[in-house]
Design goal:
The protein has 98 residues and is an alpha+beta fold. The protein contains 4 helices and 3 strands.
Length: 98
């Protein structure tokens, strides 16, 4: 999908109740930047991430969200799952300033 289409798509959701988008794919930081113009929290991957790490990150992130934790806590917890690998710094959280 082109960046222009991505921008237009998420512009439609800007007024909705969408608070966070997780792009759990390699090199998705550029797409995250585009989406972040419209959505308060966006997580993208700064470089290539292994399937194992991406899955571990997602499980921890969504588990924390499901348990009622806030997005920033969930993100930190999910990154902590990758602490023993060289992939901990790959997920990047973009957030609007309060």
């Amino acid at each position: 999908m082109s960046m222009r289409k991505l921008d237009t798509l998420f512009e439609l959701f800007a007024e909705e109740d969408v608070k966070c988008v997780l792009l759990n794919a390699c090199y998705s930081e550029a797409q995250a930047e585009v989406i972040h113009k419209h959505i308060p929290y966006v997580i993208g991957m700064g470089r290539s991430i292994s399937d194992k790490a991406a899955i571990e990150f997602s499980i921890a992130f969504y588990g924390a969200i499901g348990a009622g934790r806030d997005i920033e806590f969930a993100f930190k917890l999910a990154r902590a799952q990758l602490i023993d690998s060289d992939e901990q710094d790959i997920p990047q959280l973009l957030k609007h300033r309060a």
